[in-house]
Design goal:
Helix content: 25-40%
CATH architecture: 3-Layer(aba) Sandwich
Structural class: alpha/beta
Strand order of the largest sheet: 3-2-1-4-5
Largest sheet: 5 strands, parallel
Radius of gyration: 17 Å
Strand content: 5-15%
Number of helices: 9
Number of domains: 1
CATH class: Alpha Beta
Oligomer: single chain
Length: about 230
């Protein structure tokens, strides 16, 4: 089987992306970055997902972005809550982690080269998202160009790097529908930026709001929302 490295955060988007890679016939190698995020729940969700979707290997790689800081996800800065769609569209929020996807894709590129593959999957989305600059198509295209100049395998002509972004043009509702079509259980996943000690979503951060919007527009219940309401 052809191999692919799949970045896996444990969220709905990256989980669906991993399922897409599997549907396309790839042997999947899931890569989760333990980057100093404010909670461990998403890493545990990634472990569940990798096992449930039959990843050939799940690598959790430690890269301490908390030492750099600059984000509400890696420092004591408050996570914004109850923002309107207009507020989310107005600028880049404090939950942006400086250069995160660049770091993540660089790590994926290194692992892909050792696995002798040029296929990398990442679940970025440029429709229902929080305005992060490293989720845009032009960023992905630029990274792919750079990657094909950056490694021994590409320079020697043995590999061609391709960054797969199957969700980039989908709405959150479309992603929910695709996940269910591919047999993904949304209850495996974790999206919230600021969960409680049991991992239940806060219901008010941007990630929770966008997730709720997607499930509502898809017309299906979110098991995590039900779990939150039961607390």
């Amino acid at each position: 089987m052809k191999r692919a490295v799949c970045l896996l955060s444990g969220g709905l988007d990256s989980t669906t992306c991993l399922a897409v890679a599997r549907r396309e016939g790839f042997e999947t190698f899931a890569l989760t970055l333990d980057y100093g995020q404010r909670h461990r729940h998403e890493i545990e969700a990634a472990r569940r997902v990798a096992q449930a979707l039959g990843a050939a290997r799940h690598l959790v790689l430690r890269v301490d972005l908390a030492a750099i800081g600059g984000s509400a996800l890696t420092s004591p800065l408050a996570v914004p809550k109850d923002r309107s769609a207009e507020e989310m569209a107005a600028g880049i929020p404090v939950t942006y982690v400086p250069a995160r996807n660049t770091v993540f894709l660089a790590c994926a590129l290194a692992w892909a080269e050792t696995l002798q593959t040029g296929d990398i999957f990442i679940g970025v989305n440029a429709i229902d998202f929080s305005g992060y600059p490293d989720c845009r198509p032009e960023y992905i295209e630029a990274f792919e160009r750079m990657a094909n100049l950056a490694t021994k395998a590409t320079v020697e002509g043995r590999l061609r790097v391709r960054i797969h972004t199957p969700l980039i043009g989908l709405s959150k509702a479309d992603i929910v529908r695709l996940a269910l079509e591919l047999g993904v259980d949304p209850g495996w996943t974790h999206s919230c930026y600021d969960p409680d000690e049991h991992g239940r979503p806060c219901g008010a951060c941007d990630a929770c709001i966008l997730r709720r919007k997607g499930f509502r527009e898809a017309g299906v219940p979110d098991p995590l929302e039900i779990r939150r309401e039961d607390r």
